[in-house]
Amino acid sequence: MADLAPITGKRILVTGVTGWVAGPVAASLAEQGNTVFGVARFRDAEARAKVQQSGVEPVMVDLTADDFSTVPDELDLVLHFAVAKADNFDLAFRVNAEGSADLMEAVAQRSPQLSAFFHCSSTAVYAPVHGSPRKETDLLGDSHRPMPGMPTYSISKIAAEVLVRHTSRRLGIPTVIARLNVPYGDNYGWMLFHLMMMERGMAVPVHVDQPTDYAPIHADDIARSLPYLLSLASAPAEIVNWGGDEIASVEDWCVELGRLTGLTPTFAPTTATIASIVPDLTKLHDTGFRSRVGWREGMRRQVTTSRPDLLRA
pTM for this structure? Predict the structure, then answer.
């Protein structure tokens, strides 16, 4: 099946543009002939310059503030990736939940012709059930609390979904909420942290309920999937799982990284990490989207690009 036509000729706002996922997405959309505005706080001049060099126009917005005067008018699309991984709920709710709704309100006032609002959520909102793929209608839960440094993540992402759906319905904004599993690219991803741990002889945490499975999705497929995901936008918002077609565990990709580099992974089973969360991708597949970058190919590309000094196999 041929891909849906790429997004071209649109005025697009991408939030969280200094982050792993949103940055490559914004750059890709700019390359496709769109006018792309990249939102972040831009406290780092170097980060701002990097965004500008990618063909994206930087726009300074702080989601903790009530000032959205810098948001451009006449937008066609908003892709909302900004997120706060805060250690207190006040800040997490202010940015992830209230900030998302405030952004929707501001855009609705400035861009009545908006065709879709895309909200990046996470499969972190699910209550994990080992060995059972999670459907969009399955029970939610606090899956990320055991992970060091992420005590508010799951709950604040759930709160964000609630406010985004409410705002979509109240204002009639066509919206899609995409629950992203494990994103990675040639230059970023959880796997690179694991590779650094392997390089230093540190044991990689895995959940006691092994294997610690996920559905990782490469940056190339993230960009390719956007037209499919946006085709689901409706008011009230539609929720869809977002991941790659192949299942891989932390154990799998560490072993593969070991094969590529000659490093030997060791594992530390624990409950103080994220349990396996595998999304059911039926709804995504029903749009016609299928991922193309297999995780083994993705691991090779990642090592070749980010750590060529370690590549052996």
Answer: 0.96
